[in-house]
Amino acid sequence: MTPIDIRASVLTLHQQSTGLREISRVLHLSRNTVRGILREPQGVQTPAHPVNEVTQQQLTEVYARAKGNAVRMAQILADEYKLHPPYSTLTRWVRQAELRQPPKRSGEYHFEPGQEMQHDTSPHKMEVAGRALPPSVQV
Fold first, then answer.
1. Less CB within 10 Å around the terminal CB: N or C of the chain?
2. Do 57 and 31 share a domain, yes or no?
3. Nearest to 36 by CA among 13, 20, 48, 19
4. Per-residue pLDDT at 31
5. Does the residue 20 lie in any domain?
């Protein structure tokens, strides 16, 4: 269940006069979690911070100065622009602005069933019953 579904379930059961312990048992939640959900103000959600054009320009400039380091970007934004977005919001803005290139895949491998193996590339020699095994046989 998603957190929204869990909260809705807790609130519905509470409105049906179900006890705290019973809600906890049915939904497999701790009683403290159920209490916390019931104490939260209803209908209050924090909106996602949208990025405007001015902030977009600042992000582009700060991204270049910080060489892509989001932690350093947060420091510069706080010091110079008095902007304090949460780290997750800052990284979402960077993704939405497409400032960072997605990582390149190192390659693709296609193996038939049973074909893939691990290969020992270590310089150590393996001995079995006092005889050194050739590298192709070592496991």
1. C
2. no
3. 20
4. 94
5. yes
Q: Is 83 in contact with 55 (CB distance < 8 Å)?
A: yes
pLDDT of residue 78: 94
Q: For residue 26, what are the domain limits?
A: 3-39
pLDDT at 106 over 80: no
Residue 115 in domain: no
Asked if residue 105 has pLDDT above 90, the reply is: no
- Give the single-character DSSP code of 133: P
Q: Where is 14: in which H helix or E strand? A: helix 3-15
48 pLDDT band, cuts 50/70/90, is low
* Residue-by-residue DSSP string for 86-130: -HHHHHHHHHHTT-SPPPPP-------TTT-------SPPPEETT
Is 112 contained in some domain? no
Domain assignment present for residue 21? The answer is: yes
> How many distinct structural domains can be found in the chain?
2
DSSP state of 46: P
- Is-contact 97 59, C-beta < 8 A? yes
